Amino acid sequence: MWSQPCPSSSQPLPVTFEDLVKEGVFEARFPLHKGEAELEKWARWRSMFHKQPIDQIRNYFGEKVALYFAWLGWYTYMLVPAALVGIVVFLSGFSLFEASQISKEICEAHDIFMCPLGDHGRKFQRLSDTCTFAKLTHLFDNDGTVLFAIFMALWATVFLEIWKRQRARVVLHWDLYGWDEDQEEMALELINCKNYKLKLHQHSYLRSGVILALSLLMICLMIGMAHVLVVYRVLAAALFSSWALPFLEEQVTTAVVVTGALVHYVTIVFMTKINKFVALKLCDFEKPRTFSERESRFTIRFFTLQFFAHFSSLIYIAFILGRINGHPGKSTRLAGVWKLEECHVSGCMMDLFVQMAIIMGLKQTLSNCMEYLGPWLAHRWRSLPSLASGRVTQDPELRNWQRNYRLNPVNTFSLFDEFMEMMIQYGFTTIFVAAFPLAPLLALFSNLVEIRLDAIKMVQLQRRLVPRKAKDIGTWLQVLETIGVLAVIANGMVIAFTSEFIPRVVYKYHYGPCSQGTQPAVDCLTDYVNHSLSTFDTKHFQDPVGIEGSENVTKCRYRDYRNGPPDYNFSEKFWFLLAIRLAFVILFEHIALCIKLIAAWFVPDVPQSVKNKVLQQKYDVLEQKYWRLREKMWNERMGWVGVGQAPPSCGSTRSTEV
Questions:
Q1: Angle between helix 144-173 and 608-638 (nearest 10)
Q2: CA neighbours closer than 13 Å in the CB half-sphere of residue 576
Q3: Helix or strand holding residue 232 (H, E)
Q4: Span 612-640, mean pLDDT?
């Protein structure tokens, strides 16, 4: 580790490596690759399902890189049960694909006409036309969703607790259990700078206030980007409706959702570079005391901005889309012209599922492809004979130096970017998993590729990272714990407000045919579809003539709980359901959080074997110190100067012999 010039020295500062680089004496500095056979074997695709050589990685790249791969391997291993349960929940929906009472009623509702969703090319749509979408929705919006959400909350806790145990075993094996990073940094400064003065912790309310204000401004910008996506979806719906062919008019909503997800992905790629720049500037303005403190604060700020960049549109779809639109005949419009987008006829869960699938699919495929192709193409470009620096030498050692120089350069963020990518993936895997049970499966496949991609990059395509000590993954552990809490809150709200779980349960036990007791011959959800749709009189449309088929349809239906004509206010059912939804969110979050706390208590962070070994080491050190002190005191008391003489031990008969 290279030390910075001593800021407190009164003597002229020595020439540092950075000064020589600026003057053109040197171009770069980096440790050379040694060509370790074990790591070369690890960085191959055929080793995808082999155990990682963590100790060899530690000896070659340092503890920080080794802990990253140890964590990533454990995360991938723990995704196996989550992926299996997610597949079971998803496939269990196929049992309702044809047998669901709700799907049957929708598919047979040939005489129920739905109110138009858009402004252009408006026409009434039979409810039975949405039969396929209704069946698909029940694949992931069923009673198993609630159990899966609770399972994932428990899974996230168990994953973190067992990882802490794994980490404790690993760092004890590396003899780093009691290692102090601050103490080592100070030691390096003292070694490299004879006039080094301790830099104390400092806090400025002015700086903190400015940083808080700028952070909130950036978060508002992220939310504003979500509003831009809303505007895009509204305008796209209008354009697609006017341009679509007659047989594609029913797929306009799907096209808007798909293209909106693509636009969101492009926005994420663009905003990632801006977020990193802003987070760095905020950290520099705050002036942290040490490099590790700067890294920790940068991690928190960058992740916060990235979280809003990735999840703002999902939050909009899950909790806002279709809830501020008004009702047919009196719709909320953007700039008084364009009608706000509405959920799919089969429900908002379909929109959330599609958005999650597209964004996560693109993140796992395109990102992995670019993560490999970018460094590979850059390395090939740097290896071209016309660009290779210096003439080709016959000296094997010099050739090895040239080969290392032509590898892609690394920087402070080389490992940081890998961690950030995994944290965002972990967020997609847990936060909205109630709407996308296949997220753990996608994450599992992606991680199997990710481990090998990172290994190939670090061993074959990049210069060797400067080894750094570490005894844990640092601030990323707090990020994982925060995501776990957010996952409980978000999944509870998705089940309560986005899915049809609460309305189905309330109808089954309060409004339906089984409200007074179970009826063996009748399905308890009979007539649920009619119950969940409100009625609108078509003569109350502002422009009924512009709607195709308006002369034959006098009443249409729409998804909401409102009174019939003429007032269209929220009905008593709406307020009753709202109270039940809020009660469910509170109950779900308390149950899930209690399960998390019990699991955290039940699974200790540090294994007893590790605690006992550390305790034994402390005891051995203290015993040696105490024995030497006791021997010295005994010799001084008895006037002994013999080297081999010692005081009597507890319970011995040595004192009587003396």
A1: 30
A2: 11
A3: helix 205-243
A4: 78
Reported pTM: 0.82
Residue 251 has pLDDT above 70, yes or no: no
Sign for the CA dihedral angle at 434, 436, 441, 447 comes to negative
Radius of gyration of the chain (CA): 32
Q: What does the alpha-carbon distance between residue 270 and residue 282 come to, in Å, rounded to a whole number?
A: 19
Residues 6+ away with beta carbon under 8 Å from 308 = 219, 222, 223
Mean pLDDT of the residues in the chain: 79
Structure tokens at 519: 């009826």
Helices (H), 548-571: none
- 113 phi and psi, to 5 degrees? -105, 130
The 3-state DSSP class for residue 533 equals strand
Please list, in sequence order, all residues whose beta carbon lies within 8 angstroms of the beta carbon of residue 55, skipping any fewer than 6 positions away. 66, 173
pLDDT score of 192? 66
Q: What is the DSSP letter of 13?
A: P
> In the predicted model, is pLDDT for residue 546 greater than 70?
no
Peptide bond into 566 cis (omega under 30): yes
CA distance 476 to 496: 30
Q: Rounded to the nearest 5 degrees, what angle is found at the Cα of 548, between the Cα atoms of 546 and 553?
A: 105
What pLDDT, on a 0 to 100 scale, did the predictor assign at position 390?
53
Residue among 444, 488, 426, 482 at smallest CA distance from 149: 488
Per-residue pLDDT reduced to its tens digit, 322-362: 777 777 877 777 666 667 777 766 677 877 888 888 888 87
